[in-house]
Amino acid sequence: MSCIVVEGRRRLEGSISVQTAKNGVLPVLAATILNTGVTVIERCPKLSDVDVTISVLEGLGCQVHWEGDDLVVDASSADGTAISCELMHKMRSSVIFLGSLLGKMGRADICLPGGCELGARPIDIHVNALEKMGAKFTSEDEIISCVVTRRTACELILPKPSVGATENIMLFAVTCKGTTRIINAAKEPEISDLQDYLNAIGYRVKGAGSPVIEIEGKSELPATYVRHRPIPDRIAAATWLCAGAMTGGTVELRSARPDHMKAALDALKESGSMIHVQGDRITLIGPPRPKAIPRLKTSPFPGFPTDAQPLFFALASVSKGRTFIEETMFENRFSFGPDLARMGAGVFIRGKFAAIDGTSELKGQSVVAKDLRGGAALVLAGLAAEGQTIIDQAGYIDRGYEHIEKTLALLGASIWRT
Against a cut of 0.85, is the pTM above it? Predict the structure, then answer.
């Protein structure tokens, strides 16, 4: 993997457009095999996770190509049922193909998913729900095989609002004749984006964004030409705003969705930044030095997003005072903390809790990205640190950001890749 090098202590200023959402694009791409026609994903982000998803689609028999910034998927000839372990290990979200493969082919052969090193992330909720709908699972070592024995629309009550499980149920349920109701469904904006796509290709889904989603299934697959533009990436947007806040800068975001970012924007205001919202534009004016946010606790949408936690951990490392963070969603989400401690922040971690004493004298160091958002947090720290910071294993960051160094350079950062 490549390295990213940052020369810190530069005030960021400028206006940039927010990329479309990685976490919105990936489930929509999985859903494209449920349309036996052609789907055009407008402004599809060019990420390594998208590259992996393209390889999955091509392995299943789809024809995929780029037209400028748009990705075109022709699923009319898709007939595969298996995703290689190599691809599954590269990206956890490839498990979302489980629902769409069962919907289209009635069978799926996958491996346990991979991606970032974020501890145990089982798919029990997915499996239990799909079994109630008529899927039968068998496993041997890391291989999971699933066959549809019946297609039963039913009511499902999730033990927790799992984003992946909600998406997988939606993707299978559209092919189960009758009404499927998901209770305690995930409410993330990306769920609504998937609903919009499914409705655009001819299915009937309602309720996304609320705790109850209803899917009216049908037996025949649609064959249509559809253009879909995914929602803006709220986590990438939070990254650029944190960069502005940590450097005392002024950053304007275009093509954003402020209504998807209330928790992050409220936290930035609490840290002393001024936030102005006008339509799809967000402007942040950072303070000379951020104030510590006393407490942050991650929770499902509309709560504070787990993907933004590492970014605000980095913000806390340069803030005046102590910040307490409770991470409720993933294990091992503080893996970047020791590197921030080496850069000069006071970092104390125990299990799912972290305490950060900020410093105004963060120093550049050689550090290692261990996952996507933790890697982004180290880049942010490098922007605020004195001297040069080298972030190794930068390929993790490419899973979710389109050329992070080019975007930050547009704001005036001294940053490059080696």
Answer: yes
